[in-house]
Design goal:
Layout lengths: L2 H33 L5 H7 L4 H28 L2 H21 L3 H14 L3 H11 L5 H30 L1 H26 L14 H36 L3 H8 L3 H30 L1 H23 L7 H29 L6 H29 L3 H21 L4
Helix pairs in contact: 1-6, 1-7, 1-8, 3-4, 3-5, 3-6, 3-14, 4-5, 4-6, 4-8, 6-14, 7-8, 7-11, 7-13, 9-14, 9-15, 10-11, 11-12, 11-13, 12-13, 12-15
């Protein structure tokens, strides 16, 4: 290696490290924008004249919109580059939070949710630029550190959400949360704009060839999925359908189990806190014992959580009602950390840099489509049969997918 090559390699390592730090810091700022509003989002819809089915419908339409735009986002990520799409749509996302702030009816929330999902077209670029900036041997720990730092800032925001709702009510409290989030997203936008560096060379595609190029690139990516990722994609579909089924857990714990708004907020904080606590240990596990083993273990932990929540619905519990809820939260927290870190690392391992954006987009399209289906079913089942059934179905599916995943998931 010549001196010039060495200097070029050192320069590349420097900007990749700066990219990772930039994303780490900006995500730390963005994390509270989710946790200050999400815990009481469903309650907010009910307060604006919605019902459980409307909550499921809004979630489903939002998820399906995100599924569609991620396909476009994946193409743009691998064509015009990661930085441009991240910066532009981080700014657009901030504006959508003003729509939530002014919402006076659930229909406005529906519009705001769809527009917000459209703005999240940049999501494939986020995962692509992180994967680009981390060597394979550090991906589990790298994603784990991001989850840890996000959780630290997000955890405090949950307490703020509880404070706002208990002191100002559901509608005013959540609105204040959206206003704070608007400011935080703007700050993250400026950080990404100033410090991110592009990791790929943008492609020169003529306007009249965009459609052909779009189809051609995705054909290649679909072939890659068929050869390398089919097993994990099937498991992702099942996981996200189950996630959609239990979408109404905030309303189940608050109203059906009669724990109330404040206890629900603290439960949400508990799950996030335990997921945060386990992020680095599980990140090491993912790198040490393998992605697949950790991923499959997440379904076992989720099954425990769902079983405990189901038993609470029938007033069956070995220890006290509150202690059972806490144990369910611990199980959900560790499962969430296992799933997210193992899946991100496994997909990054099995994907070459030139198609990471499109692979992320296809994965997102499939995942969000499954999620939206689960959300629709959740709202329907909750209203028609009772909320316990969504946990019963989720337990059966989670138990079934563990041996299935062991058989169909490849790590190489």
């Amino acid at each position: 290696m010549t001196c010039g090559d060495l200097e070029q390699e050192m320069g590349r390592e420097k900007f990749l490290r700066r990219n990772y730090i930039t994303m780490l810091v900006s995500w730390m700022i963005l994390a509270p924008t989710w946790t200050i509003t999400a815990p009481y989002f469903q309650h907010f819809i009910l307060a604006l004249n919605g019902n459980e089915y409307i909550v499921g419908l809004i979630g489903a339409l939002s998820s399906y919109t995100l599924a569609i735009v991620r396909i476009i986002g994946g193409y743009l990520t691998d064509t015009i580059g990661r930085k441009k799409i991240i910066v532009v749509f981080t700014f657009i996302l901030s504006i959508t939070y003003l729509l939530f702030y002014i919402a006076w009816d659930w229909k406005i929330v529906l519009i705001a949710s769809i527009v917000s999902s459209l703005a999240l077209i940049y999501q494939p670029a986020l995962s692509a630029i992180i994967a680009d900036s981390l060597p394979s041997r550090l991906r589990g720990k790298g994603f784990g550190l991001i989850q840890l730092t996000n959780g630290l800032t997000g955890l405090g925001a949950i307490y703020l959400a509880i404070f706002l709702v208990t002191n100002y009510g559901i509608v005013s409290g959540v609105r204040i949360g959206y206003l704070v989030s608007f400011v935080l997203i703007l700050i993250a936008f400026f950080i990404r704009w100033m410090f991110l560096t592009e990791t790929i060379t943008p492609k020169d595609v003529q306007l009249n060839n965009v459609l052909n190029d779009f189809i051609s690139q995705y054909q290649g990516s679909l072939s890659w999925i068929k050869d390398k990722l089919l097993g994990i994609i099937i498991v992702i579909i099942i996981f996200n359908f189950v996630t959609g089924l239990v979408y109404l857990t905030p309303l189940y714990i608050t109203y059906f189990l009669e724990f109330g708004l404040e206890i629900w907020g603290y439960y949400s904080m508990l799950v996030s806190g335990f997921q945060l606590l386990m992020a680095l240990p599980i990140g090491f596990m993912v790198d040490k014992i393998g992605r697949k083993k950790v991923l499959l273990s997440s379904f076992i932990s989720y099954s425990i959580s769902f079983t405990l929540l189901l038993e609470l619905g029938y007033n069956n519990f070995i220890v006290s009602k509150f202690a059972t809820l806490i144990i369910a939260g611990f199980a959900a927290g560790i499962a969430g950390s296992m799933w997210s870190l193992s899946v991100q690392s496994l997909i990054a391992d099995l994907t070459i840099p030139s198609i990471r954006g499109k692979i992320s987009a296809i994965n997102g399209f499939i995942a969000n489509s499954a999620l939206s289906t689960g959300q629709l079913v959740s709202g329907y089942v909750y209203n028609l049969f009772g909320p316990q059934y969504i946990y019963l179905y989720s337990i059966v599916i989670s138990i079934f997918v563990t041996p299935l995943g062991a058989f169909i998931i490849n790590e190489k």
